[in-house]
Design brief:
Blueprint: H1 2-17, H2 25-46, H3 54-73, H4 81-91, E1 99-106, E2 112-114, H5 118-128, E3 135-142, H6 154-167, H7 169-176, H8 191-196, H9 199-226, H10 228-237, H11 250-262, H12 267-278, H13 294-298, H14 308-327, H15 338-366
Parallel strand pairs: 1-3
Antiparallel strand pairs: 2-3
Helix pairs in contact: 1-2, 1-3, 2-3, 4-15, 6-9, 7-12, 9-10, 9-11, 10-11, 10-14, 14-15
Amino acid sequence: MLLKANLRLLLAQLDSLSETPYFTSQLDTYIRELREVLRALLSKVAAQPMAINEGLAHFIAHEVWRLTQFLTGSTTKQIPYEVVYAIGKAAAEWGARRLLITTAIVQEANFYFHGSSREFFNSVEQELGIKISHQPVQIALPYIYRHKPLFCVPLFHELGHFIDTSNDVVTTSLFSHPESVGPDLPDLPSSEEIAKAPDEKRKALAQVVKSHRAEYFADLVSAAYVGEAAHGFLGEFIPNRAASLSHPSSASRYQLMSDFLSGKANPILDMFQQTLSTRGLPALAVRFRLPDVDDTFGNVRPCKLESDADVFGAFAAGWGFLSRMNNKPTGLWASLPVEDIERVTNDLIEKSIRNRMISEGWDEATNP
């Protein structure tokens, strides 16, 4: 009874969402396909006897419910469309699959993503005969940052986790560079010490190494796209956090990002470059170009962004501008209170990226 009720309620919610004026054509297609999934599943569940394994039916219903949470967020005026646009541009560089960015606004001081369940998409295609055309990248961000693009830079870190889990980057690194071989990670016992540890302790340390590598990789992806903004935000958000079982210390993370951005050799970076090559993925490299915002922002005007690299670079340039004006405001900014400096800088970043979105959309419409 409850399963069928849940499916009907979810279908009603998706039917309602399909009427929103904020959908893109990709979201229109995606939500239509999810509605088809629910209708097909309802038909099988209502059959006598049930025409699908009950456990599988519950699994599909649960996954649709989770996907709907992010779809609901993606249709409101609260979503940071400019940040989602930039994330989508970055995600497209890491695979040929069609990705759809869906977003949830959360009432917590946290950023995270939910990767899509491959089992769900495979089950829907095999059991219901429906192929879903887009793989969603589901991201969540704090409500208070919904219109603060410079404070949303951790989403590029979360994108790094998505790239990792979608392509088994860290898992592959453990085959070519086991925890007992190295490279040694800061904050943890050396690879030689791990190799000599008793089996139970070695297994536990292997899991810690995997977790730390995942964070380092995500940090590198973030730094590749938003440069010093990745380091700067992390330094403000978790300035002096000690190492834990799941995360390296803040200092160790800063050092790796600094080495990457300055071109300094680092064995952790070398390991990931080898692993990405093995997986047939792009190398970690600086993917942004710093636009000159001092003149335009200095006169409280948006900056013209000519390319995707400029869009990514706007986060780094904007972060630097905000830091300078916050510490020592000059010109038109000298008379602004601190809260207005932050608000206006974020607003200029939004407008700069939005102008790029409009220009690109116009070009695509007039040059199909």
